[in-house]
Design brief:
The complex is a heterodimer of chains A (about 290) and B (about 90). With about 290 residues, chain A is α/β, with parallel strands linked by helices. Chain A contains 11 helices and 8 strands. An 8-stranded mixed beta sheet of chain A has the order 3-2-1-4-5-6-7-8, sandwiched between helices. In chain A, β4, α7 and β5 form a beta-alpha-beta unit. In chain A, α4 runs parallel beside α11. Chain A is globular, with a radius of gyration of 18 Å. With about 90 residues, chain B is mostly beta strands. Chain B starts with 13 loop residues before the first strand and ends in a 5-residue tail after the last strand. Classes of the chains: A alpha/beta (about 290), B mainly beta (about 90). The structure holds zinc ion.
Chain lengths: ~290, ~90
């Protein structure tokens, strides 16, 4: 039940049928885990919190550096040298002091990921290297968590929404309590139990995982070696936040494009999208 | 584009007399949104190597679906097929 204050605060998005009152309530009960608090993570989490996401976990072991300010929009000179988790938590609390923010000042890795994403309704991969992205993907596949990935380098931005994988191969084996079947903070939400919409249940056209995409490729590009323009990372983060919000608000209705790899070019202003089929020899999802 | 093997300037798909072999089949494909003719048979792998000097980090979509690298050399192009070659990015 929304309060008068909620209705005023979220009035602009309550008008959208993809959100409305039901979606707003769902957002309040949802929990997103944001891994990496750089150009993607700062902006995506700002939009999630602004939209009324009730619970967010921020994960990064890094501190704010002056070279971050060009694209990591939540930080400013007063944050230099501070842990990103602390700096971002402070700024997000200024947006809405009622949001439940958990800060984990660690770098995500193979050993801690399973625990870090345990209570997530969904995970946002906002990191900056293929190695950690592969680990996050593997952890999400194992834990059956929907994963929203975005990336940017140079003038290119790319993104993909990956559903909980077991869903596509074995729809009846979903574990209660996983991000796919129940709500972390309210398991009794009757209308909130069928998160992945019918489009993504397309067993005839299943999608692969991040490992299917990168397993045989040798990627070296990151912002440090290739350079990137601030707003290009911003485009990727805005897309990622939009997709996550659609999912978190109305998981059973949103026309989420699962398993489509988006390739955006910020110079030509073009966007392409490609289906990512499962790779038969993928060691993570097959 | 000029480095693509078997590339031909023929605009139309069809059969062309060739001095060396009896006949050559020319197909038209759409490579990164541009029409392109080439001699058949030709694999996705040959197209990629002709297009990108360094294929590390290069991803390929064949008829709008990502094609895993192990399939590049096994997938042969037909007339009207589309191939999109792009570089994966991972920064954030
Ligand atoms: Zn896979």
């Amino acid at each position: 039940m929304l309060t008068k204050q909620d209705i005023r605060r979220y009035s602009r998005q309550l008008l959208l049928e993809e959100i409305d009152e039901e979606g707003q309530t769902n957002l309040h009960r949802a929990h997103a885990v944001v891994i990496g608090l750089g150009g993607l993570g700062t902006l995506a989490s700002r939009f999630l919190v602004g939209a009324g996401l009730g619970n967010i976990t921020l994960i990064d072991g890094d501190v704010v550096d002056v070279s971050n300010l060009q694209r990591q929009v939540s930080y400013n000179e007063t944050h230099l040298g501070d842990l990103k988790t602390k700096a971002l938590s402070r700024e997000l609390h200024k947006v809405d002091p009622n949001i439940n923010i958990k800060a984990k000042s660690v770098f995500a890795d193979k050993r801690n990921l399973q625990q870090l994403i345990d209570n997530a309704t969904c995970v946002l991969d906002c990191t900056d290297s293929v190695t950690i992205r592969k680990d996050i993907n593997a952890a999400c596949v194992a834990a059956k968590k929907p994963l929203f990935i975005a990336a940017a380098s140079g003038f290119s931005w790319q993104a993909i929404n990956l559903p909980c994988h077991s869903f596509l191969t074995s729809a009846h084996q979903l574990t209660p309590g996983s991000g796919c079947t129940s709500e972390t903070h309210d398991t009794n939400l009757a209308n909130y139990t069928s998160p992945i919409n019918k489009v993504s249940r397309n067993v005839d056209n299943p999608c692969g995982c991040y490992n299917c995409l990168v397993a045989q490729l040798n990627l070296t590009q990151d912002c440090q070696s290739q350079g990137v323009l601030g707003p290009v990372v911003g485009i990727a983060a805005c897309h990622q936040a939009t997709q996550a919000l659609l999912f978190l608000a109305k998981r059973h209705l949103a026309k989420i494009q699962w398993g489509r790899y988006i390739v955006g070019n910020a110079v030509n202003a073009t966007i392409q999208s490609f289906h990512l089929p499962p790779s038969p020899d993928c060691k993570v999802c097959q | 584009m000029n480095s693509i093997r078997h590339q031909s300037n023929n605009v139309h798909t069809g059969v062309v007399k060739n001095a060396a072999s009896a006949e050559t089949i020319i197909i038209t494909i759409v490579l990164n949104n541009q029409s392109q003719t080439c001699e058949s048979p030709i694999s996705v792998g040959e197209i990629v190597h002709g297009y990108a000097s360094n294929v590390e980090g290069t991803a390929v979509a064949y008829n709008r679906a990502i094609l895993s690298k192990s399939q590049w050399s096994l997938t042969h192009l037909n007339d009207g097929d589309s191939v999109d070659i792009f570089t994966l990015v991972a920064g954030g």
